[in-house]
Amino acid sequence: MKRTNLFFLGVWFAAILVEVLIPHIYVENFVITITVLLCTIVTDNPDRYFYANTGVYNEETFNIVYGEKLKKNIPFKLVAFNFEDFDLYIQKVGLKRANTAIFETLKHLRKDFGVNNVFSLRRNIAVIDARIFANDEMLVKECERIAENCYKGGLEHNPDCKLKAQFAVLECPQDCDNLLDLNTALHMMLFDPEVRGDNLVQKFDPKLLDARHRRERIVMKIHEAIENDGFEMYYQPLYDWKKDRFVGLEALIRFKDKEDSYSPGEFIPIAEQEGLIFEIDEIVFEKVCRFIRNSELKKYGVDFVDINLSLLKLLDVATIERYTELASRYEVDPSFINLEITETAEANEKYLSIVRNNITRLREKGFGFSLDDYGSGYSTVVYMAEMDAKMVKIDASILWNAMKNKKYYTVLENCVRLIYCFD
What we know:
Helices cover 54% and strands 18% of the residues. It has 17 helices and 14 strands. It has helices at residues 2-21, 28-43, 59-71, 86-93, 95-113, 136-157, 179-191, 206-227, 264-273, 277-295, 311-315, 318-329, 345-349, 352-364, 381-387, 396-402, 406-421, and strands at 50-51, 56-57, 76-83, 118-121, 125-129, 165-172, 201-203, 232-240, 245-256, 261-262, 304-308, 337-342, 368-374, 391-394. The strands form 3 sheets. Strands 8, 9, 10, 11, 12, 13 and 14 form a 7-stranded mixed beta sheet that branches. Strands 4-5-3-6-7 form a 5-stranded mixed beta sheet, with helices on both faces. The chain has a two-stranded antiparallel sheet with strand order 1-2. Strand 13 (368-374), helix 15 and strand 14 (391-394) form a beta-alpha-beta unit. Helix 1 packs antiparallel against helix 2. The protein starts with a helix and ends with a helix.
């Protein structure tokens, strides 16, 4: 076995040497094919490297081939594609016919582009080594041809059902320099609706991967902050022009580490999407209760403290008893706390009855409410009336635009008039 492995390594390095010395001769994929074939014979396990029903190399082979290229910094270009709304297609034609359409497509790709250049990955992703195309124009034409054939193939299985292909192009190592990022980029391009464009063929933007890495880092830092008491609270004074004094404070959460800092506008939406906002909201509420107890704020003319409450937390009925219990533990009168929620489309359309019920129950416990970012995108008079908010904060974009645009100034005027109607 050791001699066999040494033989494989010898063939491999010989192929790389030939490609370096004679760049226009591509022998590496051929040698990979031979190597995989020999591995198949030696291990007597052919399914490990390709799919028997299509004869196309699988994800393990893909990772071997392009993982080695990335390690050795060998440039390559890939075209990946899958089918739009494939789950819907399965519902219409059935799993058996849908799989048949996939198998037929892969067989055609193998026949058209050669066994060495086609790979089949999970989630029905097919990958073609794009160096077989002379230029980008040829690449796009071939993608259009594949898409047309897939479309016709889909109609054969169901005349009322279209099988639409979508393509992503990546160049490495400039787009991705490691195998994990390569696979991540492929899935982002083909499955993430925020990344996927309208064009049939879309080139990958490395900035998307940078954003994904930052998001992953923020998620990790949020977990660390939750576990290690890493959040800090700051308090912004609120001024009442009628009383000509500061009457309240708004509690603002911040967190940072030695390497970077993250604004609430960046990490709060991520925390909501990752299901971490429940813990953050509770940490904030307890920190504010402790601050109120220890600071004797009423001596300084402070009548209330505003605390942000996420819609997700408000929808959780357990929040009512939990917040009441924390206020009691720190000897804080609930009427001293204003729970500030953001006006959202989700609250208006989907969850208004639950929001209304939980607001009523929290108000019965003594808590007040404020509405933040009013006018930010889905304003309804009903929502504001249902909240019976103690304070309404108009979205900052309206304020700034009103300073330079007459139409926005009119919007601002009418927002203020409407708010006073509920006073």
